[in-house]
Design a protein that fits this description.
7-stranded mixed sheet, 5-stranded antiparallel sheet, alpha+beta, 684 residues, 22 strands, 45% helix
Length: 684
């Protein structure tokens, strides 16, 4: 009998073990597949994470527990200037300034042992060190994680150099604006929805705000304080509250404070260029002194006007009171002179007349100076042809020069063909005074020369210098300052030469009123030269635009003949009007150089129109107008006044006196022709 084989496996058992083995193999394969899949996913995630880290603009650094750099991203290399292999394996302190390294290592050890952090790990600004040794600010954020049982730290570093620079610039601007605000003479406050955003020191000083109320959080109390300072607290409060939510209105007014001070208050919306409203700005300025000055100025002006009016009345009365007795003295003196008298009485009468005429001249000159100082001297400033005026002046003084005898000459006056802006009569008065003085105070057989030369002032303006040169005794330098002082004759009163001592003072004032200056050059024993310097102006002809006559009407030949009388003593102005009327052949122009002659011609010719200047050598143009209106023969003749005096008061007075129109010099040609046509009844 054979024994059974104990090592053999029953057929059913073997089949079962095979199934288990296959199942285990299948499970292992499944797990292996899952592991492969998980590994691929992990690798994919790691690759994605690496790509994100590499693309991060901020620096990313991984360090271990010993603060050794394990990994860096490209941004770290760019920010610090190191290639990656020169940072990995190095301590993190290589990226820090030397002064911070020991502190960092100590802090790291303390944290690893106790968990206590020496600095926050989020949003910390610290200095960092580039490879080139330059320091720069970075913001760091750190986090801790574990891998395979080891502790690691991930750090994120942002280069904030531009941000810090902008912050510093902003801080500087803020400090500068605050400093400017604090030194401003205006009080400045910025508010928004009832809150004070900013207030300068001056604002608090103006309203006497206590120091403890100047903090922004106490703005409600400060507002109540400011309201109480106003003379009208309710009105002050209403204005503030009315503008609090108004972001459109610009407001300005004056505020009276309870203590009597006056503030100029200005308020406007505070907005950006894009229109974004930040609030409202208030600016106040203490104008108390200005208001007080305005009151004093008004009082002074009223006092000056009253004094000027009194002076005018005084001048009028003095002129009448002084001239009236002089009329009797000179009148009866001349009657006595015509009577047969003994020789001694005839000499006495001659002395009376001589002294009377001297006194009359003195009265005239004193009153004229007084009128200038009272701004009552009426001048007609217009273009004056220098050569014409100089020749007339020479002709007028030549008989006196021949009597001395003094040689009188003009040195081919250079530039005397120019026009100067002056009053023709007053300029003639000045020149005659200077020429008469040069003749009177000259030596016998001496010479007087009239000069003219163009010049340019310091400001580039052109002027004409008219000189009167003599060969008299000359004036010591230390006495030149006395020349233009009223009644000062520098000892000439002992020379036997008649004079009032007012001629030069009056001449200087007249020249200055005309916008020029009168000066002197003198050398003792050689003579003196007086210079009258006046601004040059364009000639009347030059003011006519080229081709202005091209617009002449074609129907002029069909017009009826007209006569115009022009009463004007300035030849340049006469020439200008003649030139303007050249395209009006139907118009005959009659000139009159004097007022009385103009009245005579008006009565004889009965003109269709009178053109009238106001400043005439014999009587005033206003007097001519009065005579024309009073005479039955000329009452109907229209009068156009042409004057350089453009004051509204003058224009209104002359129109009220009967002038049809009032034209001002320099003439506007179109306006002049329109006025002439209207006066003549010519249809446009």
């Amino acid at each position: 009998m054979s024994h059974p084989d104990l090592t053999s496996t029953p057929p059913q058992t073997a089949a079962s073990e095979a199934d288990l083995l296959r199942a285990r193999v299948a499970e292992l394969e499944r797990q292996l597949d899952e592991a492969r899949t998980a590994g691929a996913a992990l690798a994919e995630n790691e690759q994605r994470y690496r790509a994100l880290v590499d693309a991060d603009p901020d620096g990313v650094v991984i360090i271990d527990a010993e603060s050794t750099i394990v990994a860096v991203n490209p941004a770290m290399c760019r920010i610090f200037g190191y290639p990656a292999h020169q940072m990995v394996g190095k301590p993190l302190t290589v990226l820090m300034p030397h002064r911070l390294r020991a502190g960092h290592m100590g802090g790291t050890r303390r944290y690893m042992m106790t968990g206590e952090r020496s600095i926050p790990w989020r949003g910390v600004q610290v200095p960092a060190l580039r490879r080139d040794g330059s320091e720069f600010p970075v913001e760091i954020n750190f986090g801790e994680y574990r891998r395979d049982g080891q502790r690691f730290f991930a750090g994120f570093m942002t280069d904030i150099t531009e941000r810090v620079r902008d912050q510093e610039a902003l801080q500087f601007q803020t400090t500068l604006l605050q400093a400017q605000s604090n030194v401003a003479i205006d009080g400045i406050l910025v508010s928004h929805q009832g809150r004070v955003l900013n207030m300068n020191r001056r604002y608090a000083e103006i309203f006497n705000v206590p120091e403890e109320l100047r903090a922004p959080e106490r703005c409600v109390e400060m507002f109540a304080w400011a309201v109480r300072q106003a003379a009208d607290p309710d009105g002050y409060r209403r204005t503030i509250e009315g503008l609090r939510e108004d972001f459109q209105t610009v407001h300005r007014d004056e505020v009276l404070l309870a203590d009597g001070r006056v503030l100029d208050r200005y308020s406007a919306p505070l907005a950006s260029e894009a229109g974004e409203v930040y609030g409202r700005i208030w600016m106040v300025r203490d104008i108390t002194e200005r208001k007080q000055f305005e009151v004093k100025l008004k009082e002074a002006k009223e006092a000056a006007e009253a004094a000027n009016e009194a002076k005018s009345e005084f001048l009028s009365r003095m002129s009448h009171e002084l001239r009236t007795p002089m009329n009797s003295i000179l009148g009866f003196g001349q009657l006595l002179q015509r009577s047969p008298l003994p020789a001694d009485q005839a000499r006495s009468v001659e002395h009376i007349l001589k002294a009377g005429r001297h006194l009359l001249n003195l009265i005239n000159e004193v009153l004229e100076i007084a009128r200038i100082e009272a701004n009552q001297q009426q001048l007609s400033l217009e273009p004056v042809h220098a050569a014409t005026l100089l020749n007339e002046a020479l002709a007028l003084v030549r008989p006196t020069a021949d009597q001395r005898p003094v040689q009188l000459s003009a040195r081919a006056p250079q530039g005397s063909d120019a026009y100067v802006r002056a009053d023709q009569q007053r300029l003639m008065q000045v020149l005659l005074n200077l020429l008469s003085n040069a003749i009177k105070y000259n030596r016998s057989g001496g010479a007087v020369e009239l000069l003219a030369r163009p010049a340019v002032g310091a400001d580039g303006s052109a002027f004409l210098a008219i000189g009167v040169r003599d060969t008299g005794p000359g004036i010591p330098p230390d006495r030149l300052g006395e020349l233009f002082v009223a009644f000062s004759r520098l000892g000439a009163e002992r020379s036997g030469v008649e004079g009032t001592g007012l001629g030069l003072a009056l001449s200087q004032r007249l020249v200055e009123v005309m916008g020029g200056q009168l000066r002197v050059e003198s050398a003792v024993g050689e003579g003196s030269t007086f210079w009258v310097e006046l601004p040059v102006t364009e000639s009347p002809r030059e003011r006519l635009e080229p081709g202005w006559t091209d617009g002449a009407r074609a129907d002029t030949a069909a017009r009826p003949a007209r006569t115009i009388l022009y009463v004007e003593d300035n030849l340049a102005n006469l020439d200008l009007v003649e030139t303007i009327l050249m395209d009006r052949p139907e118009i005959s122009l009659i000139p009159a150089l004097q007022g009385r002659l103009g009245l005579q011609l008006a009565r004889e010719h009965r003109p269709d129109l009178v053109l009238l200047d106001l400043h005439l050598p014999d009587i005033s143009g206003e007097m001519v107008l009065h005579e024309l209106r009073a005479d039955e023969r000329t009452r109907h003749v229209p009068v156009l006044v042409i004057s350089a005096d453009a004051t509204t008061r003058q224009v209104e007075r002359l129109r009220a006196a009967g002038a049809r129109d009032y034209l001002t010099k320099p003439l506007d040609v179109d306006q002049f022709l329109t006025a002439v046509d209207a006066a003549l009844g010519v249809e446009a």
